[in-house]
Amino acid sequence: MQRMRIPSGVAVALALSVAAAAYGGVTTSRIPNGVYRATLSEVFMRYAGVSAADAAQNSGVQTLIFRGKRWTNKTVNRYHPPDCSGDLSYTGNRVTLVADRVPQCGTAGGRRLFSARWSFERGQLRFTAIQPKDVFSRTAWGGKPWTKIA
Questions:
Q1: Any idea of the CA torsion for 119, 125, 128, 134, to the nearest 10 degrees?
Q2: CA 123, CA 104: separation in Å to the nearest integer?
Q3: Spatial distance between the Cα atoms of 118 and 127, rounded to a whole number of angstroms
Q4: Mean pLDDT, the chain, whole residue set
Q5: Residue 21's pLDDT band (cuts 50, 70, 90)
Q6: CA 78 to CA 145: how far, in whole Å?
């Protein structure tokens, strides 16, 4: 049997890929399917500059669920808001979430919820360079990392 020679560049790339996988780094063009959670307190949101009404309505335990080309957002707080879902699309290194045109999505219904660059590393999903650039979107979607729980 002849021994196979691996070019040094390929060996280094392979070693880096194995190391990234071992440490939880994921290089992919899509957010990994799963359930992600972040807790946004009313105080945290107010400190970031979100209005009192928006902070009260949107604080609490936030859960984002990604499955294929669909997303769902669940909020657990004293107001018990309904879940909102929609479509996902990707362009380059950005993801865009568009809400379904249904009453439970409120004013976001049928519109872009947000668009952002995203990264997933060591079990945490992060959104940066968020559009729209308003304080609420930056705080609600990018203010904290989203931990993958399932």
A1: 160
A2: 29
A3: 5
A4: 87
A5: very low
A6: 23
Give bridge partners of residue 96 from the DSSP assignment. 89, 115
> Could you say which DSSP state residue 69 is in?
T
pLDDT of residue 52 exceeding 60: yes
Cα 135 to Cα 25, 92, 103, 107, 138, distances in angstroms: 29, 24, 24, 17, 5
Residues contacting 22, CB < 8 A, separation 6+: none
Beta bridge partners of 86: 71, 99
Residues 94-140 pLDDT 10s: 999 999 999 999 999 999 999 999 999 999 999 999 999 999 999 99
How far is Cα 51 from Cα 139, in angstroms, rounded to an integer? Answer: 11
Q: Please report, as a single letter, which amino acid is at residue 23.
A: Y
pLDDT at 18 exceeding the cut of 60 = no
Burial class (CB in 10 A: 0-12, 13-18, 19+), 4: exposed
Residue 34: left if φ>0, alpha if ψ -120 to 50, beta else—which one?
Answer: left
Say whether pTM exceeds 0.70. yes
